[in-house]
Amino acid sequence: MNATLRAGGLAVLAVAVWFLCRYANEPHSVRGLETPATEFSAVRANNTLARILGAERPHPAGTEENARVRARIVKEFASLGIEAKPYRAMGCNYGQRYGAIQCATVTDLIAEVKKGEGKAIVLLAHYDSVPAGPGAADDGSGVVSVLETVRALKARGNPGRHPILAVITDGEEYGLLGAASFLHDPKLKARVGAVVNVEARGNRGPSLLFQTSDGNAPLIDLYAKNAKRYSTSSLFVEIYKRLPNDTDLTLFIRDGIPSFNFAFSENVAHYHTPLDTRANLSRATLQNQGENMLDTVSGLQQVSFPALKGGNAVYLSILGMVLPRMPQWWALPLALLLFVALAFASYIARERKMRWDQAFLSFAMPPVFLIGCGLAGWGLYTITQIVSSMPDPTYAYPVTFRVALSFAIAGLTLAVSSMAPPHGLARGAWLWLAGLGILTAAFLPGISPYFLIPCLIAAILLLLAARSRNRWLGRFGQLSLLIAATLNLVIWFALVAAGESLMGLKLHPLFTIPAALGLVAVVPLAAIEPLSRRARRLFVSLCFVIAVVAAAAAGLIPSYSEVAPQRLNLNYVEDHVRNRAIWAADAGAPLPDALRSAASFSATPEQAFPVAFQKAYVAPAGKFELEPPTATVNATPKNRVTLTLHGSERAQQMFLVIPKEAGLKTVGIGSWNIPIKRTDFNSGNTIIGCLTEDCRNIAVTLDIAPEKPFDVLFGERRFGLPGDGKKLLDARPDTAVPSQLGDGTVLVSKVRVAG
Fold it and tell me: Can you give the pLDDT at residue 683?
């Protein structure tokens, strides 16, 4: 075969595999109104979502719109012949990582889908939204997935051995508060046997099984047996353990309850913004999410709850069609066996003794390639950032930068193919992959299937090819290398596609490193019939030139658009402690020129108010216009202080900041008594937030051990800006939107507490 054709064919193979993974990763099926009553229909669910959301307004916990959405959900359950009972209580959650206690009065809905004795299967979703968005995907999609699942189960006659509860929680967005209040009630908690939760972090993409309870081997087997298409990996579990994100299910998992967590996460640009609307929610994604819930619940109905607990598994779905898995304890022995098998295959397949420098370069190729791809991504992204002057220049339009990364990786693939003879490169590639399989099996077992599965196939094929004619470089040997390399490409390029859709190209290592791990087994195939030195240098140089030009061009394209806008909250702050009134604009990216023209914002960002988790550009706002909140202190008995906050009639949230020197031991709010634990992440102040309107006159009891008098900062937050803020709202461009808590008015004061 001509060397140019071989190189071109391998390039086409890599591109085709990437497109295949992108296509296979996405759900495509949407079932309509003609769908049998016993099955899930995204069209029916979407129609239900339209009725529940109404005008699609934000409906955070404690608001009037929240109550209206709740009433509509109750009506939908009633139309199915099921009573959804409200459960109103205070919920609190202590995030030790951030030293923050979040509380609110929330109203969950609890519906007896199927009555019976014993523990129940819980269908879990939340109905509240963030203040900035209407929550069609997060988590209106979850609510209608539960409702459509309930309708299908009733049509089937509710077969199976367990009772079923639908629990639609409130206050998830304020810190899992509905789930906390549910589990705080011993009688409700005792009813739970297993949980299926549905969530969202975007509005399209596959419904991922991204988290389970510990001891998940039986759960994965159940999923594999019942799901229509697979989208999961034990890698997701490894990653999620290390992220600060949580869902309602986190609290159920902490209590050792067998649990499944499904979510879709593509198009994060719309997440927690006004763009989280029903029109932007993928119907195919809703279909996939709903089928996962219905199929998983149907599977749970056939097993006993004790049978759901076992050892952990490692697993990986491939193209949505197969789900190879094994007990976690198998991973390390298998990895060692595969390394020995590949080492033996490479030994008996050797054609001639390589020089020491060739042997060294053979084994140096994989790390050189991986490091080179990582550095190329960093360098190209730096070029794009310099040209654009933006922290995330590819946020709205990633295609040009994707081209830059692709050409850089292609150039490096061709460059390292000349480092050593082809049989040496093949030996180095597969022994490195097998060696990484050993390391991950020992220390990060959830990642190990990405190495073990292709190495297993490679070991079988390369052992067979080792004694064939011309060994690895003969026809059968090359075919074996190609099959093994293609499977390796499929596995790693699926992660490339998923990584980009989850986080964008800002985290370019999620693109470059998995791509390099996928292509490392292709390098020996390119070396079998190498290009001439001159042609190789020409093609490598051309690839890098295109990569640099594309990176620079990506920097000239706008970073934000109306479809993928900048997240930009505006706040009005009256700080009676620092004696200033200011406007504050989030500093996640440079301020748009129109906003800088509307007020004299600072050149550098700062913390605008005590409970701001993101720095902001600030501008003077003139004189105080609003009455500050007040607080009364009752310090009896000694070392116990009760602070009663008094907010205005417009206060939606209240907060306190207890300084480290208070020696805070416990916090009491309502029926909750929360012990304070210091960690490496949380060694300073403690923030307490009471996040619904009934908190305007909340009493908080503090058990303290202070050495001297101290000040407690406190305040209130209102949704929206005062009248003068209209000039800023008008100046915020269409390529910027509020997110999370949205725009607000913050009033800050302090009170002295005697030591």
Answer: 56
